[in-house]
Amino acid sequence: MPEALQRRSLLKAAAGTAGVLTAGRLWQAAPADARSLPPLLPDGKEAPRALDTLVLGDTASESAHGLTTTLSDVVTGGLGQSARVLNPKDTSDFWGGTLSMTMACRPKGPTYVTIKLWGSDAGEDLGRLQLFAEGKQVGHYHLGAVDPLDIAADDPRTPERFYFHTLPLPTDLTKGKSSVSLEIRSMGRIAGYSQSAADYYKAMTRPSRGIYRLYTHREPYFRLDARDLTGTLPTPQLRPSPGKEVVDTINTRVVTQAAAEASRTSPQLDPWYLEFLARAYTMPSTAAYRNSAVPLQITSSLDALYWKYLGDKTVMTDSAQQWMGLGRLGLVLLLLGDTYTSQLDEPVIGSPGTITNAGFEFGTTNPTGWRSVTWAGSGTAGRDTSAARSGSASAKVTIPSSGTVGLTPSARVPLEQGTYTYGVWVKTDGVGTNGAYLDVLFFNASGALVGGDNKFYASAGTHDWEHVTATLATPATATQAEIQVRLTTAGTAWFDDLTLTPPATATAKPVIRRDAWTKMLLDSREYWRQNWPQYTNQAIICAIGLYLADRGLSLLGSTDAWGETKARDYIYQSVGLTPWLGAEQADGTPTRPLGGSYYQVTKAGISKELGYAGNYGELQDWLALLYDAVIGVGGVDDDTLRAHLVKMVKARAVFHHPALDADGYKTMRIEALIGWRDPEYPGVISYDEGTKWDGHPMRLATLLKDPDITGYARQSLADNQVFHVLQETYDLGASARTNLNLLSTADDYAYVAGAAEDGARLPMTPGQPGFVFSDEENGLIAVKHGDEILYASLYWRARWGINRLARVHLIGADGIEHSATVWQDVKYVPDGRAATEPDWVNFEFGVVDLNIPGGGFPPPGDTLHQALAGQVLPLAKAPDDVPDFPLGVETPYAGRASFYRCAYGPYLIGMNTTSNRSHTLATEGFGDSVNLGNGAKVRDGAELSVKPGTTVVLRRR
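Below the sequence we write its predicted structure tokens.
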């Protein structure tokens, strides 16, 4: 870790004299005897406490545990060790084979179950392994505090090594018993976000991963017997390929796409497409650069989007643009500068009572909304940018000798009864008498011609622009008109600026473009400020949409624009610079659903939801867009905001740890095992940023130009991983969204590759200094001790109340990984209520835009019951200004404790999450230790005062 990073508030711990428990606070211990610390060996290390060990594939061990199986085979797996796989059924089914056994447990206090799995196994289609005890399911499939025994992912978790995952058994199931009936059931994968049970539960299609051993034990951390083979970390190797050619391939695709889009004439309704084209317009490397066709194409597309929006409000509210609504359109206008302003006070294309593309500004060879027609002879008709009465184009018709040629619109103009005035400007070169003319034709509601041609001629010969007009009463049976421009003699004629003036009695009024675009942006801003979501990534995305919508309103001259100060306040709220006040009422009054002092980002720089979020907490893609929105694209200088974004990125860097990629090469991955919204492991490859739909490596480093963040990006170059990640992003497909994402790749690579090397590396990189990172607001810990890494989420999926569970992930210096959900001791201020764990076998995201019932969809087959059902979840007291919330509702206050005491392996953690009270960390039985925050030696039995907002991390000596 760079020295500068160490000097910030990463090292946060406090130790001192003994204290007393504060009156009015409840101390809720883990299940009886869980606090007792294990005996020590002479070397001071924890003694193994296996209550029982089942070796799968070993006949004697299986027999001793009464193992019965269905659809199971014994295989030889990693390191030549025996294992069992569970097979799918002959007919398509979510459930597959099973293992049932009897294992020793503790009659009093907690019993833990640990599974041993081979880390080279990979493939999401390996499915999941679910634990049952005494016939009941232990934990939940998706996002419960106790998860499955295993969730397979496409990437291997620990190549060439075994790993160990631990779950707690409910003490009610083992109370008074010396043995417990356990079962492992295999199942297919789960498709999160699916809207039906049939889509959610996927059939098992292949044998499960091998199951090697199952252990029961009393301590949270199971110390392996020396005879239990684990494998060793392979010697890290650099990825040999791909290389820079990936950047060239990406650049070729986006440049080619930009050229194609610049010549497109049909309107496009995808805001990602519009931003792509608008950004390409500002990039000299593309054919769209300062191409006059681009603003016109975007203008016609925005007009078309307006009409779609009027008929379908979900254009603004559905998930296609996440929670930005139509705010992205404001960014499009910012990127175009003033190139569209001459079009603002003209009617929207397709507006009632107007002629489509009346000035022939839109199009390429042919004007948009018009087609060339040859009625007789020969000639040409099309769009011409060499002559124009106004704007930059006109329609040009040329006849070499004889014929009748012209342009006719693709859509007729609806009419009412009364007298209309039709007009066109005509310029001619060598045209005969009655050669160039305006022709008005009337049609009834069935499309049949009413009457005949109504021709109005320009002067013959050669002359500059002449205005030709016609005043015509609408025939009684006519409901629409077709306005054509024609040439019927040799020569050349140009036509421009067609007009249609309705009678004063007409009810259909044209929609002016400024008003139409203003409506889209204002409606989007008003809807989303009243529907501002809570999760940090969603809150940021929504705030960007609000801010950009308002900047667009300012550009359009709307009196409803808030202006920079108020608009930027939403940005500040979303990133934790000011309290998040939540969705607003129609009059602008904040609802304050979480009170007036809730921050979306912690003081440590981590997003705050219901604890640490792995993938969803990686906000670099949205921070890049936020930076562009406020500062980068004609914005304001805001050093406070920039410094805060840098802080957030550097805080996240702590949660990128060394690993191997799917091919066995050294890399860095996001920490996902302790992420409350992370459904599978390991995390994706990421240095400064990983594979994202809306972001790519090196982008934010290029924008922020912070030396440390640039160093992280350069580390991905040194490890030759960045090109692999970019290839994965490229392989997401050539959609407007991915092309937009990758548009700046070549420029970003040029910056990072050319930046000065200052030696900055990600903090968890092997060889970097040790540290303790604590985030008390999130109940979050990261420790680097030598090359040993500990991640812990003490506030773990406690959605409804205090659950006394912590999630830990220990990566040994030897590369052997242990992960676990464990009991811990907590202290909290009660609000006097308690929720009860429901009899659900699944949890889901608590979001309003998904049609998912409480507890998710029930799985296929027989009704299952939850082993944790009935567990009492007392609620912690929320701040006084937080509105009352009912039981069984997700809230970031109900399950957040004031003090956590968590022991795992050689670590003892005491975390004080309060701002005004000290707490005491008791160490009796832990052994002599070292305070990793300040290096002080701590004697066994010492009582340490943990000051408000600080954490003590002890490691046994």
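Residues 536-555 form the longest helix (20 residues).
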